[in-house]
Amino acid sequence: MSKSLAELCSLLIEDNYGEFYAHIFATLLSHGRLLALQLALKCHLPLRQIQHGLAVLVQAGLVFHHTTSEGRTSYEANPRNAYDLVRPGRTLELVQKRFGRAASAIVTQLLLLGHAPVGQLKTVNRTANESTTVQDHDIENDRANSTSIVGSPAEDRPDVEIDNALRELCTHGLICRVREAHFRTEADTRQLVEEKVHNSFRSTAKGTKLKEEFAEKVEEAIEKEVDICINFRKSGPENMIPQKRKLDDADNIPNPKRPKLSNGVATNEGFDPTYFVGDDTNFLNDSLVVRLNYARIAVLFRNSRLVSLVTAIYGKSFSRTYEAILHQLEPDLPDPKENISLGPEQERSPGTTSEVDEALLAQDLAHHETYKEHSGSPWRRVNGYVNGIKHQLTPEARSHLEVLCQEPYRFLSRSLEYPDRYVVEYSPLSIHLRNAEIFRIIFARFDKYAVRIIRVLLDKGKLDEKHLQETVLMSAKELRQILAMLQQAGYLELQEVPREAQRQPSRTIYLWFYDPDRVRKMLIENTYKCMARCFQRMKVERDKIRSTIEKSERSDVKGKEEKLLARAELEVLKGWRRKEEWLLGEVGRLDELIFVLRDF
Amino acid sequence: MSRGGRARGGGAGRGRGKRNWGPETTWDVEPLESSTTRPEPLFPEVPQCLPKALSRSELDRVNHYRHLRSLIRDGPLYTVLDPSQLADDHGKINKRSGFDPFDGMPSYSKRYQKPKRLLPDLSTRPYVLKFFPKELWSTLDPKRQNPAWTTLGPLLPDPPGANTNAKGKRKADMMPTQNVRGKRRHVGTSSDDDDDIILASDRRKRAQKRGKDVPNDAGQRKGLEAEDEYGQDAEQPNEDDQDGEEVVEDSAFEESDDGAGDDYNAENYFDAGEEDDFDDGGGDDEGGTFLG
How many domains in chain B? Predict the structure, then answer.
């Protein structure tokens, strides 16, 4: 937990929920785990207020809590979730674009509530739906006003629409189940589980084998405790009917594998919106408590990044094919591992792969084409199949796939077992994305020679200055200048290897090396700091014109600003809107960097 | 002097700073040479690079974020931190801290101003109690309407009051044992009203003693004393829970009424005098002048 992240988290909470919570959160972050009464003393606030604040923070998932068997409850901050407060804008934009307005209304509601039972989401939703249209708060909303939202066809049947949206969100894992373990720290969960397993553990094995068996049991139990899946794997009374796609019977018609939102095209193709509701009265139990799964946003964003990379390298038509593949994979993909501690590269789960079936892909592509003809909006809203026609891949699409399989990027690779299936290996692609991002930063800060040196060192490992000079084809003087700059900025490091015990400088070898992990951490730290500065700047700017803002927020002025405020005040407010836009936009861009460097 | 400088400057080492005998005092004569030895400016010119304009989708994100934020801010949970709530190191609270003497005085137009929330209003929505620690249950659901309470009945022998007991030794020490017993007995009899009988009667007495001098206005926010809070008043948070925003009352007034050495209490001065003298008399006077 770094200082700048702590700073950023409390600033985010302050911006979203208010200073009161930020004060409690910051105290918890700086002191670690505390009892409520200790927290009250440290915060200089009465216990009752602390309890109210903690209740809200727990509801929003920003604070862990743990009760011992003696009944003492301690609280701990959850910086991971606090950081996610940067992302609701991106989430809502993405959800609205891909799953429609009803889905975005649901997500808005979830974001407001923290976590909530499905029943509550369903009821509150209708009222929220009307108000969810994005309005630019700008008084003179010139640019952003064009973000008009296409009305959905199922408008007259709100329940169906919302059910469909909920289902869609669940299938994509954007909504996940909440368990009690999610309110505990990982260590607490482990301890609890270990105790539980220890009590019921019976084994005949001895020595290391016993230990291994025990550890395995614990891992299993932990997995069960923190399982967030709603739809897959298990089907209980509270769960949705299992919908995991089966690759083997992919040709089955009708195909309920991937219910998609009926939007626009559905009516043309004879899609009956009641289809999913009819056989699905127990689709989601009302008492199932759900929350938003931010890890999923990273998956979706990674896909969009990959698609834009393909567009940059191979062109539009290839990227369309690739997009179809990635969208097919989405529902089955596991979440990227959440590690805020940033372990070394090797610790990440290596093979986040998934297979894609050619036949399914052909279907999607075919729909894609037909949909394109109907309107220019994204293809995602297409229904899953049309009249049961099985599609063959066109030769063009096949050649696209071949090209995508090529070195050096290998966006796709053929499955070893089945010749007509393809695999996307995400981890090498993520590393590639990450390196590309780092190179981009270095290029922006220095020049192309610096990037060249870094790439050589990344490729070759540790190099002597002489060898480095030969490899990068630069004169010694220039090289040294750039090396010094890079070292000063923290991108490169120098290792001394003495040839003798005396460690004379003349008899020592100096090796330059580039450690991607260290650089990554450094960049992430700097990005956190930069984001925190953005929020601080926002605060300062807001304080400067506080009186005008307060005036515009008065109950008799609000909504009638143009009539009641003076021209100068309107100008000030407009300027403030612009500034805030810039700063929040900048924060969003920095957040993209965090996605690439930390979350992919 | 200037001649000497020139002569030196004309030498072979000029410009490289190799020969630099004696103090160089000829800045006015040779500005170019001397500028290299001057200290760097404290704030050098930094080339400004303008970021790329925000794209449509980025703008959408920003607007979504602002929209959601305004929803939260207008909702029941957004809470500001007032300096007057914070206790100092000795546990004392300065009611006047953070008060703006220029704009802070109550005025008519203030009633349109967005009210500041000092305590979140938790009563606006149902909660899934099983995800919260049990010590917060009474905060979230003071009326015990949630079915989760019944499931916990036998497991939780000492509901709220005793539960808060467990949290801090300090409080347990300060509370007489009699009260604890009373509380337990009370919990056995009724579940709706959490107030301890003894403490409640105590409080009632205090309220009576306070009388009409200090009107107990629900909307008026009073300062609070941390010591007091930890000690007695926190024992019955549930009564206050029902009127959402109000901060816990304090006993500072009552103490000063007893004549505990606080002769000059400015607040009392105004509060007490308001009804009797100033308003009536002033009104009459004014009326008189108007009529006259």
Answer: 1
Instruction: Compute the average pLDDT of residues A239-246.
Output: 37
Please tell me the predicted confidence (pLDDT) of residue A209: 86
Mean pLDDT computed over every residue of chain B: 60
What is the rounded average pLDDT for all residues in chain A?
77
pLDDT at A468: 93
User: Based on the domain organization, do A501 and A531 belong to the same domain?
Assistant: no
Residues of A in contact with B71 (CB under 8 A): 108, 112, 131
- Give me the pLDDT at residue A275, please: 34
Beta carbons of B120 and A47 less than 8 Å apart:
no
φ, ψ (nearest 5 deg) of residue A212: -60, -45
* Contacts with B, A 283-312, CB within 8 Å: 289
Domain harbouring A459, CATH code: 1.10.10.10
Is the residue at A437 inside a domain? no
Chain A nearest-CA distance from B88, in A, is 7
Instruction: Tell me which residue range forms the domain holding A212.
Output: 179-226
A296 lies in some domain: yes
The residue type of A501 is A
Sign of CA dihedral B198, B200, B206, B208: negative
Average pLDDT of the segment spanning A407-430:
79
- Least confident range of A400-404, A411-415, A558-562: A411-415
Residue A315 has pLDDT above 60, yes or no: yes
Q: Which domain holds residue B214?
A: 132-252
CA distance, residue B29 to nearest chain A CA (Å):
35
User: Tokens for B174?
Assistant: 């300060």
The distance of A344 to chain B (nearest Cα, Å) reads 32
Both A293 and A171 in one domain: the answer is yes
In this structure, what token pair is assigned to residue B89? 């190191």
Q: What is the DSSP string of A347-399?
A: GS-S--EEEEEHHHHHHHHHHHHHHHHH-SS-GGG--S-STTPPPPPPHHHHH
With respect to residue B115, please indicate whether it lies within any of the assigned structural domains: no
**Chain A residues touching residue B126 (CB < 8 angstroms):** 120
How many distinct structural domains can be found in chain A? Answer: 5
Residue from B48, B49, B52, B66 to probe the interface with A (highest A Cβ count within 10 Å) = B66
Position A6 pLDDT exceeds 90: yes
Q: Could you tell me the sign of the dihedral formed by the alpha carbons of B102, B105, B109, B115, in that order?
A: positive
Instruction: Give contacts of A108 with chain B, Cβ < 8 Å.
Output: 68, 71
Question: Does the pLDDT at position A436 exceed 70?
Answer: yes
Closest partner residue to A550 (CB to CB) among B72, B88, B113 is B113
Q: Specify whether A46 is located in the same domain as A193.
A: no
For residue B169, the distance in angstroms to the closest alpha carbon of chain A comes to: 10
